[in-house]
Design a protein that fits this description.
heterodimer, A: alpha/beta, 10-stranded mixed sheet, 25% strand, B: mainly alpha, MetI-like fold, 2 domains, 10 helices
Chain lengths: 259, 311
């Protein structure tokens, strides 16, 4: 189920503006890979290029290769919709569908393409996904209530449940805790640890302690200068990044000497 | 130096704030007064019309049997118009907000808005002369193939001036307003919700169904209500298309078509005796009531479905 991702010479554009330049890296399967770096350095853009969500913005495009288990995501014959079904995504702000119940929110991805699901199978998917998202005990008595009625942290876990209900190969998380309080953040971080057993997880974060806590590998993105494209400065095991990085600018950023 | 305000001083209100608040309040009150004024006028002038001498109501003999076919015609024409206009408007609005490339969407939206600026008399002329003629073969076809439905019982009109033609003209007049409002609401769908659907692997249509429609529903109902208001109240276009007889029939393509309240007032008011005028004003009062009732009903339906969701 979980798969690794190979990225080679990836350039990402918004129209004529080159936002990210020349990224090469291998994201390991069943591991957590974190991206850190200052605002505007292209780490979220890069993340969105991994499930072809980048191109939904008019004029946005990508050059280079993203390979998931030997299959290039950007081959002309590849349907972006199919890519997004295999590579799930969790956003910065929790975004359950406002008119749907908790139950229907979890099933939203499974119901796409008008697939018919039997009631028993649906119940099973909902229970399994909510349990994996550590939300089941909190909501099992109110599955028919709207998802918007939950707290922010619960909503975010509901979105994670929704993303894993379709059993994707990879789970992308774009600053999933930045809108949450410390307790919810810690709940999500525990969850990431557990999900790692089954999924390849890529997480963008502004919080360096979070990267150090949850990830196995870390990539540091930075801008060469204002107005220049962002690039990958260093990509190494998290331990090494936070104790003995190869690049001086990584150390400077991590130790807070520059922002 | 500091001055301690005595405890009973009022909070400071700036002159600008007070002026603006006052102006806004006056504007709001004026609208309420105007609406009440219209209602009072209709009531005072119209109530004698409810019980005028029997011969005024020819070919009927009392007010309610006189106004009945008119209410029926009004609602029928409006319903025909909405059945055509609503899917069309939603389609055009979605095309502009979600499908068309920006350089097509802008001009298209502009052209649709222009449709609203064409005076209804012009639509009436066009509907009676051009559209009626053009529709004759269509009516013939409907009669030949679908005459088992009460709507197409026929025999098809030889002039083409039927309630279906009037409904189409009304639909064209309704489309700009419903399209403009639907387009605005569709375009305001939070990006976050659309991305939630897309990231799950939704196609564009599924994204619209999951994220855009639920968000836009109440706004689209408002758009339809405004369109319905226009269809119910439209006078000249209907008066010029229809040659009316006071009948109640679902037959949309025959020679005998019910008039609408508004078109009936427009065609008869000039030559009417004071008694007859009172009757016509009373029918206006009925139109007022019908419009109100329809609006409340629609609000209630939307409100109920929204409460169900947020419960």
């Amino acid at each position: 189920m979980a798969k690794s991702i190979d990225i080679s010479d990836l350039d990402i554009y918004y129209g004529d503006f080159k936002a990210v330049e020349g990224v090469n890296m291998t994201i390991r399967a069943r591991a957590v890979t974190a991206f850190i770096g200052p605002s505007g350095c292209g780490k979220s853009t890069f993340l969105r290029a991994l499930n072809r969500m980048h191109e939904v913005i008019p004029g946005a495009r990508v050059e280079g290769k993203v390979m998931v288990s030997g299959q290039s995501l950007y081959d002309p014959g590849v349907d972006p919709v199919a890519v997004r079904r295999q590579i799930g995504m969790v956003f910065q702000r929790p975004n359950p569908f406002p008119t749907m119940s908790i139950y229907e929110n979890v099933l939203a991805g499974n119901r796409l393409n008008s697939r018919k699901i039997k009631k028993a199978e649906a119940d099973e998917i909902v229970e399994r996904s909510l349990k994996s998202a550590n939300l089941w005990t909190e909501v099992k008595d109110r599955l028919s209530k709207p998802g918007m009625g939950l707290s922010g942290g619960q909503q975010q876990r509901l979105c994670i449940a929704r993303a894993i209900a379709v059993e994707p190969e990879v789970l992308l998380m774009d600053e999933p805790c930045s809108a949450l309080d410390p307790i919810s953040t810690s709940a999500i971080e525990d969850l990431i640890h557990e999900l790692k057993a089954d999924y390849t997880i890529v997480i963008v974060t502004h919080n360096m302690q979070q990267a150090a806590r949850v990830s196995d590998d870390t990539g540091f993105f930075n801008l060469k200068a204002a107005g220049q494209p962002g690039h990958l400065v260093e990509f190494n095991p998290t331990n090494k990044m936070f104790t003995n990085p190869d690049e001086e600018s990584t150390e400077a950023y991590i130790s807070g000497r520059f922002g | 130096m500091s001055v301690t305000a005595p405890p009973d001083t009022k909070p400071v209100v700036r002159l600008g704030d007070r002026l603006f608040a006052g102006t806004a309040r006056v504007a709001a009150l004026t609208i309420m007064l105007a609406l009440a004024g219209v209602f009072v006028f209709l009531a005072i002038e119209g109530i004698p019309g409810l019980s005028a001498p029997a011969e005024i109501y020819q070919p009927f003999d009392n007010f309610w049997s006189y106004v009945g076919p008119l209410v029926f015609g009004t609602v029928l024409a409006a319903v025909v118009a909405l059945i055509i206009a609503v899917p069309f408007s939603i389609g055009v609005a979605l095309f502009i907000s979600h499908y068309a490339p920006p350089r097509v969407a802008g001009p298209l939206a502009y052209v649709i808005d222009l449709l609203a600026a064409v005076p209804s008399v012009v639509y009436g002329l066009w509907g009676g002369l051009a559209l009626g003629q053009a529709m004759k073969p269509v009516f013939g076809w409907l009669f030949d193939n679908l005459s088992f439905l009460p709507f197409f019982e026929g025999p098809p009109s030889v002039t083409g001036r039927t309630i279906l033609t009037a409904g189409i003209v009304l639909a064209i007049m309704v489309v700009p307003i419903t399209t403009a409002i639907s387009r605005e609401v569709f375009a305001q769908t939070p990006r976050l919700h659309e991305e939630a659907a897309m990231a799950l692997g939704a196609t564009q249509w599924e994204t619209i169904r999951y994220a855009v429609f639920p968000y836009a529903r109440s706004g689209v109902v408002s758009a339809v209500m405004l369109g319905l208001g226009r269809a119910l109240g439209e006078t000249m276009a209907v008066a010029m298309v229809l040659s009316a007889t006071p009948v109640v029939t679902l037959n949309l393509i025959s020679n005998t078509n019910p008039a609408t309240i508004a078109s009936n007032i427009a065609s008869n008011y000039k030559e009417a005796t004071p008694d007859k005028q009172a009757v016509l004003i009373a029918t206006g009062l009925v139109l007022f009531a019908v419009t109100f009732a329809v609006n409340f009903l629609a609000r209630w339906v939307v409100g109920r479905s929204e409460r169900k969701v947020t419960r």
